[in-house]
Design a protein that fits this description.
Length: 98
């Protein structure tokens, strides 16, 4: 019997409001979104407009936990739209920062 060790990337239910930006052909497409699921490698959100697969995207989310002193954090995720179903968008995360 052969066993393969596979790394499982879990998704967690996370509901955050945010904005997205797509830069395509020297123009920016901006929109609003709400996350539904998030993991280390993928983000799933509902966009206010459909987004084509393959687009590079930047998603900015207001993080719910504040630093001491009440300082707000913003999570910025950069990636590529890997799957769509209407306005349900899946992003393969390439980079993120607070």
């Amino acid at each position: 019997m052969e066993y393969r060790a596979e790394k499982v990337h879990r998704l967690y239910p996370v509901a955050l409001d945010g904005h997205y930006k797509i830069v395509c052909c020297d123009r920016e497409i901006l929109g609003k979104c709400g996350t539904t699921w998030m993991g280390a490698k993928r983000l799933i959100f509902i966009a206010n407009n459909p987004i084509p697969e393959g687009e590079r995207i930047e998603v900015s989310l207001l993080w719910p936990v504040r630093l001491p002193g009440g300082v707000s954090l913003k999570l910025v995720i950069r990636g590529c739209v890997s799957e769509t179903s209407g306005n349900r968008i899946t992003v393969a995360i390439l980079k993120y920062e607070f």
